[in-house]
From TrEMBL:
It catalyses: L-threonyl-[protein] + GDP-beta-L-fucose = 3-O-(alpha-L-fucosyl)-L-threonyl-[protein] + GDP + H(+); L-seryl-[protein] + GDP-beta-L-fucose = 3-O-(alpha-L-fucosyl)-L-seryl-[protein] + GDP + H(+). Residues 76-173 form the Fucosyltransferase N-terminal domain. It is a single-pass type II membrane protein. SUPFAM superfamilies: UDP-Glycosyltransferase/glycogen phosphorylase. Keywords: Disulfide bond, Endoplasmic reticulum, Glycoprotein, Glycosyltransferase, Membrane, Signal-anchor, Transferase, Transmembrane, Transmembrane helix. It comes from Pelobates cultripes (Western spadefoot toad). Protein O-fucosyltransferase that specifically catalyzes O-fucosylation of serine or threonine residues in EMI domains of target proteins. Attaches fucose through an O-glycosidic linkage. O-fucosylation of EMI domain-containing proteins may be required for facilitating protein folding and secretion. It is an enzyme of class 2 (transferase). This is GDP-fucose protein O-fucosyltransferase. Pfam families: Glyco_tran_10_N, Glyco_transf_10.
Amino acid sequence: MIPIWGKKFWIYCILVAFFFLLVTLQVFLELGRFEKQKKARALLQDVQKHTESRPIGYTEKHNPHEVFDHGMNKYPIMLWWSPLTGESGRLGQCERGTCFFTINRTYYENPMTKAFLFYGTDFNIDNLPLPRKSYHEWALFHEESPKNNYKLFHPPAITLFNHTATFSQHSHLPLTSQYLENLQSLKSYQFMVPIQNKNMLRRRLAPLVYVQSDCDPPSDRDTYVGELMKFIAVDSYGDCLHNRDLPDQVNNPSSMDDAQFYRILAQYKFILAFENAVCDDYITEKLWRPLKLGVVPVYYGAPNVMDWLPSNKSAIVVNRFFSPRELAEHIKQMDTNDTLYMEYLEWKLQDRISNTKLVSAIRDRKWGVQDITQENYIDAFECMVCNKVWDNMHLKDKGLPAKQWKAESSHLNCPGPELFPFMPRHTSRSSMRDMWKPSFQQSRKEAKALRILVERNKNFTNQEFWNLVFKSGSE
Ligand SMILES: *[C@@H]1O[C@H](CO)[C@@H](O)[C@H](O)[C@H]1NC(C)=O
Ligand SMILES: *[C@@H]1O[C@H](CO)[C@@H](O)[C@H](O)[C@H]1NC(C)=O
Ligand SMILES: *[C@@H]1O[C@H](CO)[C@@H](O)[C@H](O)[C@H]1NC(C)=O
Ligand SMILES: *[C@@H]1O[C@H](CO)[C@@H](O)[C@H](O)[C@H]1NC(C)=O
Ligand SMILES: *[C@@H]1O[C@H](CO)[C@@H](O)[C@H](O)[C@H]1NC(C)=O
């Protein structure tokens, strides 16, 4: 009896252990693949934007090294510690002076190298520019979702930088409105469907539409939407919670141009606008698109979204509802009462954006979105750093003390991911859903280790870094 039971037990244990190993491996592989794809796409887009929208008067020299050598020791060097711009060297004219921008790391040794520019998504502990000399300013450009590179989101890491451009309104160059090209587009009637037509369309369409193909992100939106679906109908066209196919003429990548797709979305009364992460000021096209189309967004994401909405009655804010059931009740009420529904479109129909914070953010930003007459945000970031470096050089010439710059922890600050207490619709094999919390917790240790190693001010190996991360874990 006992030996047989014992043998069974051990076989069982080994099987369970093996299973866990497989699942973990699979999750890491998926995570890696996913991040890589996303990065490649993002980099490509940004570089395209960057090169397409160079404004008139922006100096572009074709033989950068020659030009630079002529003006040797004249221009401060801004060294991109990232392949982001792909520029081997370029003299750029900013308000306060000219700087030389390059991704060529041989300039690390050059005494004119005053600033290192980092791109958050590919910020890597490998090969940091150490030792960091006293005149080396570090600047971080990080416009992407908080889920890319968690370790930067903790005080020990973010405060290593002198300058920041992030989605946070507290950053030195806030990119909060990066997905909104202008206020005019918000007020547009181009795709708007009158309420009478929407009511007729309700015979074959759900009141709500959801289109998401990046499933199980840190915000756990698919779990919430899955629960909501128990109480109200949702047409879901994306990969996540898919229950409806796009019409044939659109259901093929080449014919799915934006306008055709927008026309489909615009037929709905409500669009589920759920961000992939929950973080103050992290607002994407998911919020702006429904507003542009004349559809009421049901928004989940930035807890401070009210700071950015065109008016205080332009979106249904999910956080205000106790449960998906309660939210569904509210939406049903609006669905059956046109007066209630139209109150949420009044700001558009009356051509009135009452949020002065939004208006001034768009008016005052020094960069454009899809606008070739303006600098893009990468150029604006480069010039922000270049200008600050020149300001300090001028102060030094006058014998005055340099101005100190330091990132605050508020420049990149997100609460850790939380799961909703509902059963997810489908527990996928390699659930990313369970990865975000441990990954965020570990990133806290990574941030601490990074801080210690950077302050030691010597280059370090991957091995040293991970040893430190796991040592601090066993404290
Ligand atoms: C990097 O710059 C050095 C001069 O500092 C130059 O000799 C080298 O060819 C450059 N490398 C690339 C890839 O442009
Ligand atoms: C919403 O805006 C209106 C007009 O701007 C204002 O009178 C009202 O007090 C605001 N309501 C809230 C809850 O902020
Ligand atoms: C619709 O909502 C408006 C505004 O709250 C209210 O005055 C009206 O009585 C409602 N109509 C119906 C049929 O419930
Ligand atoms: C940049 O940050 C470093 C580290 O915090 C600091 O030593 C240095 O003085 C800062 N430089 C400027 C110009 O503020
Ligand atoms: C630090 O950099 C030097 C010079 O590039 C290199 O020889 C050395 O191996 C590096 N040390 C570590 C720990 O990476």
